[in-house]
Specification:
The complex is a heterodimer. Chain A has 2 helices and 7 strands. Chain A is an alpha+beta fold. Chain A is elongated, with a radius of gyration of 16 Å. The radius of gyration of chain B is 23 Å and the shape is globular. In chain B, the strands form 6 sheets. In chain B, strands 11, 12, 13, 14, 15, 16, 17 and 18 form an 8-stranded mixed sheet that branches. The chains are: A alpha+beta, B alpha/beta. Chains A and B meet through helix 1 and strand 4 of A and strand 11 and helix 3 of B. Chain A: Its EC number is 1.5.3.1.
């Protein structure tokens, strides 16, 4: 469990309705009214996408919408910030994919 | 018809909206986060009185006060452009275009990143990201963390992580370089901590703050700074160690750290790896001012205020008619100062909108209140804040007030 339930000052976190969503075809549980980034981290998922060119893994960085590192595809809409978007029941979330860069691959193979 | 559009539902924006609405102006507040409160939401610290400053409660209080005055608060709305069309400001958002005679930009601050090899690995985040995950979303950022960067914001959030039971193993400096600047030089870091020692998070620094005003003593302190660091509520602060690389295959596995001398130079052969599953980069805050730039507002670089700030007066006007600013966009200070500035901006807008009565008195009181709150602030991100404020207000006098007077003279003459 990756959630902070009890807090000495903020108190016990309120009971929220549980919903389910998928990320890269796997089903996860989330709380209602939380962001996609928070729900995935609570499920132990840190990698939200791969860099379009290099293919290296990326997670959230600033968590408040500035850095654009957490962009994912939500219900087929690309470039949605996971840190600002509330997860919804049955939402389909996907990481982006590495884009082909044929010229670079050719150079690498030489 | 909307009279005022406030961009940003943090302490400055909400306080500004409240002052506008109290003056009879129809006000909308937009914010791209999922709930109002801005960076207030993450704040949690014990005041000298022993009471807790709970940012979530403060946000709820401001939100309710605004809503009771019929302020329309809309979350999940992102602004991407701002322009003046036919005497009105058009605010273009992902949910359509809004327009009003007055706009208050209260977008707050963002964090300076400190790029270092490996910083794009999942598990590396800004210190503010960890704060929001912990206090707002109540999700653990990891089991064992390292903070890179020793500054007031880092210490405040370290304390919050500790409260929530998140284990931070150590705090180290970034490697000295063009991007980390003074943050990588132990002497400079100790100096800035000394200057800010009013709120020092540990008794060591509070005590040290008074002692280390002298350059000689400070250099000595760095020379003899304990190798294992000074513990801040259990987490060692290592001023003589710098992070040179974050390592990991698919996510953070550790940080490669080297010993450094008092000027930040790496001591060869001293590298070792500290294990971690999350890393927080604490580079400090800068005013988040893109929208003022997009609107066409002129800027000035004032390091004491945290970076580039839009030209503005003490009553929060900008040179662009109908455009006002408040909060950290005008310089990095505490949430309380932001609130006081927001109130000032709100009354300033009301005055500009032709609201009579006691508005002049209210505005004067609000300006005075900003000064009082600033003097009493426990958290001072930039010790020379007063110098910075003086610079920007003097510049305003020089560029806009004097010119306006000359212009008026010509007109009258």
């Amino acid at each position: 469990m990756n959630r902070i339930i009890n807090h000495p000052i903020l108190g016990k976190s309120e009971d929220r309705k549980r919903i389910s969503f998928t990320f890269n075809d796997k089903t996860y549980e989330a709380y209602e009214n939380e962001t996609i980034a928070a729900a995935l981290l609570a499920n132990g998922v840190r990698t939200l996408r791969v860099h379009e060119e290099s293919g290296t893994p990326r997670g959230f960085y600033c968590n408040i919408g500035h850095c654009m590192e957490c962009r994912v595809t939500v219900n087929n809409q690309v470039n949605i910030r996971a840190c600002l978007t509330v997860v919804e029941n049955n939402m389909i979330v996907e990481s982006g994919k590495q884009h082909p860069n044929i010229v670079k691959r050719m150079v690498e193979q030489q | 018809m909307t009279d005022v559009i406030v961009i940003g539902a943090g302490p400055a924006g909400l306080a500004g909206a409240i002052a506008c609405a109290q003056s009879g102006l129809k006000t909308v507040v937009i914010d791209e986060f999922i709930k109002p409160g801005g960076r207030l939401l993450g704040q949690l610290h014990e005041k000298p009185s022993g009471e807790w400053w709970n940012g979530i409660k403060e946000s709820d209080r401001l939100t309710k006060e605004a809503q009771d005055l019929s302020v329309n608060i809309r979350c999940g709305v992102s602004v991407y452009n701002l322009e003046k069309e036919a005497n009105k400001w058009s605010v273009h958002t992902n949910k359509g275009t809004l327009s009003a005679s007055f706009v208050l930009i209260a977008t707050g601050a963002a964090e300076y990143p400190i790029p270092l090899p490996g910083w794009t690995l999942p598990g590396v985040m800004s210190i503010g990201a960890a704060q929001v995950m912990t206090n707002v979303h109540r999700v653990q950022v990891g089991k064992k963390g390292i903070i890179i960067g020793a500054n007031i914001l880092a210490f405040a959030i370290l304390n919050e992580l500790q409260l929530a039971g998140i284990h931070v193993e150590r705090i180290v400096l970034p490697e000295k370089g063009p991007l980390s600047g003074k943050a990588g030089v132990p002497n400079e870091v100790l100096k800035s901590l000394t200057d800010a020692s009013k709120l020092a998070p540990s008794s060591f620094l509070r005590l040290g703050g008074r002692l280390m005003k002298s350059d000689g003593l400070r250099k000595m302190a760095i020379k003899f700074f304990p190798k294992n660091g000074v513990k801040m509520n259990g987490t060692p602060l290592l001023l003589r160690k710098a992070a040179v690389e974050i390592i990991g295959d698919q996510q953070v596995e550790g940080v490669r750290v080297a010993d450094i001398d008092a000027e930040g130079k790496i001591i060869l052969g001293s590298e070792k790896i500290y294990e971690a599953d999350f890393v927080c980069i604490a580079g400090g805050l800068y005013p988040l001012a893109e929208l003022a730039a997009v609107a066409g507002c002129p800027f000035q670089y004032i390091p004491e205020l945290g970076g580039h700030v839009p030209h503005h007066s003490e009553i929060m006007e900008t040179p662009l008619d109908g455009l006002f600013v408040a909060g950290n966009i005008t310089g990095i200070e505490s949430g309380k100062v932001a609130m006081a500035q927001g109130t000032t901006a709100g009354y300033s807008i009301a005055k500009r909108a032709g609201k009579g009565g006691i508005i002049d008195d209210l505005l004067q009181q609000a300006v005075q209140n900003v000064r009082t709150v600033r003097e009493q602030a426990a958290i001072q991100f930039h010790p020379e804040i007063n110098d910075g404020r003086k610079k920007i207000y003097e510049q305003w006098e020089e560029l806009y007030t004097k010119k306006q007077n000359e212009y008026d003279d010509v007109k009258i003459g």
